[in-house]
What does this fold into?
Amino acid sequence: MKLATWNINSLSVRLPQVLDWLAAHPVDVLCLQELKLTDDKFPFDALRSAGYEAACFGQKTYNGVAVLSRQPLAEVVRNIPGLADEQARVIAATVPTPQGPLRVLNGYFVNGQAPGTDKFAYKLRWLQALHDWVASELAAHPRLVLLGDFNVAPEDRDSYDPVGLAGTIHHTPEERAHFQALLALGLVDAFRLFEQPDKSYSWWDYRMLGFQKNRGLRIDHMLVSPALRPAVSACHIDRAPRKNPQPSDHAPVVLELGL
DNA sequence: ATGACGGTGTGGCACCGA
It folds into this structure.
């Protein structure tokens, strides 16, 4: 069984790339972020023709998340319960597997702009609310994966310039402490369960030839629960779509489970 | 220190992303 996460920076623009990628990589579940469209514009029909049902949570212009699945989705939750948030950043669903239900939490984490700004304060509040909600989800669903665009580079090796960018957004001690708090719940960064190439990133700035120079960040993650960890057989970043014409600035991350 | 690139919405640009 395979799951993937991909920030596609406008589903309207990137739908052909998503369909091409799914045709070449027929994962069981694909979680998308930054749809940048409302639910009435979501391409249910095209995805159904490709073999996927979908649950979406969109909004105009910004944010928006969706879960695509070959198997039926159940127990769909939109945004973090109890958090007043007008931004569409979270969608959760349960998918069936031969070993029982798998809970999938898909997040488009707050960017946060810069320390000291209102957006940064929102990011920290959001991360705390997410943490508390994930804890309750774990208690109810032991087999769980938290995935998406975390907008946090967890360690120095996850950044192309950890010294120059120290303390800036994605690199602050506060953001990294929140990432560690998720790990303290028992979640494991599946990417780091395996040997990976040096300078592995999942996002590159569109500007200044960022991708060509591999000036990137690893900010898209797959965290698995303790009960799921023994099933994890591989995790990798697929850089190929970043080379497409009109690419997203993010690459997909793929998680393989021996289920 | 700033802008560079790309998407959106609406407009002759501004805002946002990371």
Notes: Residues 2-257 of chain A form a domain with the Deoxyribonuclease I; Chain A fold (CATH 3.60.10.10).
